[in-house]
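Predict the 3D structure for this chain.
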Amino acid sequence: MTDTTVDAGLETVLAERRGGVLVLTLNRPHRLNAWTNALEQRYFALLDEAEADPDVRAVVVTGAGRGFCAGADMDDLDVLTGSEEKGLPARAVPCHRPLQLRKPLIAAVNGAAAGLGFVQALYCDLRFATPTAKFTSAFTRRGLIAEYGSAWLLPRIVGHARATDLLLSARVVHGTEALEMGLVDRVVEPDALLDTTVAYAQDLADNCSPAAMAAVKAQLAHAATSTFAEAAGEADRRMVLSFEHPDFHEGVVSYQEKRPPAFAGLGPDRS
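Done. Predicted structure below.
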C-alpha cells in the first residue's frame, strides 16, 4: 500500500496564485509525484475551483522536486494485481477532466512524466519542459495498453508514426527530442522553467479574451472529429456570436487607444 505515514499531513497538490495565473504543483516529491486517488481528487477539485473563478485566466501545472508525475503509484497497482476484481477503479470524475477545462492549461514538465503522468501532460493545451525532462508512456513495459485515451490524443499531437513508436516501445524521450517531434512546445532550462511558463500564461491572462480562448478551445475539440466544412460552419456560427460579445468591442477599442485590454472574466458556458 501507499506509504500513508509519509503522506500524512501532506497537501497532495499545492495552489498558488500569480496574478491571473493559478499554479498547481503536484506535491508527493518523495514518490516523484506518483498519482494516487487523493492527489487526483485534490487536483480535479482545484481545476473545478479555477473554472468557477473569473479572476483565474490560465492554469499552470508542474511537479514538486525532481519529477512531474511518475505515473500511478506502483504500490496502488500492487493492490490491483492481487485483486479478483479486475475492473477499472471507480471515479467520481473522469480521468480526462483536465481536457474539459475551458481555460488554458499549461504543463511545466520539470522531470519524469511517465504512464498516467505522461497522459496528464498530454491533457494540457501546451507543454513546456526542461532539456532533461523524461517522457514515457510506460504502458507496454507494464503489460498494459495505451490508457486513458492516449491512443486518440497522442497521434493528434505528434502524428501517427511517432505516436506508434512512443506507445509501442514505451521508450524514454527527453525534452530536447520531445521538442523536435512536437510533443512539447518549448524547452527551458530548469531554473527558468516555471517562471517562463507562468510568464506565457500571464500574457494570455493579461491580453487575451477569456471568452474567446474558451471558444477557441471548444473549436479545436470539435474540429478534431469533424470535416473541414463542419469546422468552417462552426467558426461562422461562433464568429457571429463574437461580434455581439463585449470583448470584441473592448478588443478593438483598446487596440485603437493603444492600451491593454480590460476583458471580463469567463462567465458560465453558454455555447
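The first strand starts at residue 13 and ends at 18.
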